[in-house]
């Protein structure tokens, strides 16, 4: 019985090592009978940021392995001469004999832990980003790029992106729609193009799928819908870059008036890379009125502010619900986006109520903006506000986002 448990622990430890590709910086892995894993990660002196990135990555991958219930990690480093109890380089440290608890390893010189009250680091945000004065190369065939973002998932970001694009196309603009949500592509379903596959042109570029007067691309067109996208950050950015740059969005004679990018929720690798390395014209942040979503709006706005991407405004979804008797209910809170907009110095471009027509249209693959009625009117008004805000970027500076302690 005990031998079986030992084999199970060894198997789980081996699975973690395999998931991390046998990384030489992973000194040891132990797993107890309850599936709790402890990772010991070597931090090279003077490379604390690299070690912290490795630690986070290792914990994320280990936590996805079936049978692992909890993941903890510690950082170790070779101490400089003159410090007692220095470890030999490359040696696996036996934490069970350490005088310090495993959860409180000896600090690594220069390592900065994330604590309550931590602020977004300018150093981290600007890593790999172009200098403010340095302009990125425009994407051939695209005049403007508008990012639709949300710092929190489940707020209706894809619904806004699809219907904003559809409303602009309905108004006569040449519109492209790029689904950059690699882990959860929704555009194929909402555009009614689930079975579509982009063709390849004679010059080896992807030909976007056309639907409802728009050119669209999504990783959902290129992958098995039942297969999860278990990709690391660099691979995700590579896929997004290919969908953006290796596609025939427009021609010099007839460029797209605008490309709308539906980004993944959050402020992770994909969002940061898009903000830093794609010539984004501006961004819109989508939120619901509830406080738990609004708290993340500040983080999203801060990311765009630090990467020099203008935010032209907020869009509030699930703003209210009108019952059959005509009584209005604010199920998610009232006026949240207006309060946050006032605090950040950003306008609210639109408030979208809970309407059955919007949900039904998304499920049917025909954006509500293309129909008639209140839903279509709301999205046409949003498209008009967004277009005006984009035009004003040419004649006046972007709104300055204000962060107060």
User: What structural class results from the helix and strand content?
Assistant: alpha/beta
Note the total helix count: 11
Q: Can you tell me the residue ranges where pLDDT is under 50 for at least 5 consecutive residues? A: 79-134
- Computed over alpha carbons, the radius of gyration is 24 Å
Overall pLDDT level: 77
| Strand runs, count | 15
Shape: globular
Compressed to H and E, one letter per element, the order equals HEEHEHEHEHEEEEHEHEHEEEHEHH
- Note the main sheet: 8 strands, mixed
- Residue share in β-strands: 15-25%
Q: How far do the termini sit from each other?
A: 57 Å
CATH class value of the largest domain: Alpha Beta
Strand order of the largest sheet: 8-9-5-10-4-11-12-15
CATH 2nd-level architecture of the largest domain = 3-Layer(aba) Sandwich
Superfamily at the CATH H level of the largest domain?
A: P-loop containing nucleotide triphosphate hydrolases
Q: What is the domain tally? A: 2
CATH topology heading of the largest domain: Rossmann fold
Helix coverage percent: 25-40%
Written description of the protein model:
The structure is a single chain. By secondary structure, the chain is an alpha/beta fold. It has eleven helices and 15 strands. The chain has two domains: 2-113, Cation efflux protein, cytoplasmic domain (Alpha-Beta Plaits, 2-Layer Sandwich), CATH 3.30.70.1350; 145-395, Rossmann fold (3-Layer(aba) Sandwich). Helix content is 33%, strand content 17%. Strands 8-9-5-10-4-11-12-15 form an eight-stranded mixed sheet, sandwiched between helices. A three-stranded mixed sheet has the order 1-2-3, with helices on one face. Helix 6 (233-245) packs across helix 7 (269-277) and helix 8 packs parallel to helix 9 (336-344). It is globular, with a radius of gyration of 24 Å. The model is unreliable at 79-134 (pLDDT under 50).
């Amino acid at each position: 019985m005990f031998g079986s448990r030992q084999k199970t622990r060894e198997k789980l430890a081996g699975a973690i090592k395999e998931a991390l590709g046998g990384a030489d910086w992973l000194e040891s892995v132990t797993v107890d009978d309850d599936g709790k894993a402890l990772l010991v990660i070597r931090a090279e002196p003077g490379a604390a940021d690299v070690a912290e990135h490795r630690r986070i990555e290792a914990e994320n991958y280990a936590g996805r392995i079936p049978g692992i219930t909890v993941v903890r990690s510690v950082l170790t480093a070779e101490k400089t001469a003159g410090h007692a109890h220095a470890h030999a380089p490359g040696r696996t440290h036996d934490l069970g004999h350490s005088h310090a608890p495993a959860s409180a390893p000896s600090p690594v010189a220069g390592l900065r832990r994330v604590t309550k009250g931590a602020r977004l680091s300018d150093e981290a945000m600007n890593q790999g980003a172009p200098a403010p004065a340095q302009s990125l190369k425009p994407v051939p065939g695209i005049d403007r790029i508008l990012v639709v973002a949300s710092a929190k998932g489940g707020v209706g970001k894809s619904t806004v992106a699809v219907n904003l694009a559809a409303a602009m196309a309905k108004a006569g603009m040449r519109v492209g729609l790029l689904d950059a949500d690699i882990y959860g592509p929704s555009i194929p379903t909402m555009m009614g193009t689930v079975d579509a596959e982009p063709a390849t042109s004679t010059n080896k570029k992807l030909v976007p799928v056309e639907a409802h007067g728009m050119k669209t691309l999504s990783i959902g067109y290129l992958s098995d819908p039942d297969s999860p996208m278990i990709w690391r950050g660099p691979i995700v950015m590579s896929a997004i870059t290919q969908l953006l740059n290796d596609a025939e969005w427009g021609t010099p004679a007839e460029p797209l008036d605008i490309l709308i990018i539906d980004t993944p929720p959050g402020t992770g690798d994909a969002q940061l890379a898009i903000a830093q390395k794609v010539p984004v014209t501006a961004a819109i942040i989508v939120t619901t009125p509830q406080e738990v979503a609004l708290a993340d709006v500040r983080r999203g706005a801060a990311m765009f502010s630090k990467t020099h991407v203008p935010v032209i405004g907020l869009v509030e979804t699930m703003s209210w619900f009108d019952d059959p008797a005509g009584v209005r209910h604010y199920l998610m809170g009232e006026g949240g986006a207006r309060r946050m907009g006032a605090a950040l110095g950003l306008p609210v471009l639109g408030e979208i109520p809970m309407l059955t027509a919007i949900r039904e249209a998304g499920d049917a693959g025909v954006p509500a903006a293309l129909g008639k009625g209140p839903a279509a009117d709301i999205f046409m008004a949003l498209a008009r506000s967004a277009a005006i805000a984009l035009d004003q970027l040419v004649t006046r500076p972007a709104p300055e986002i204000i962060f107060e302690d």
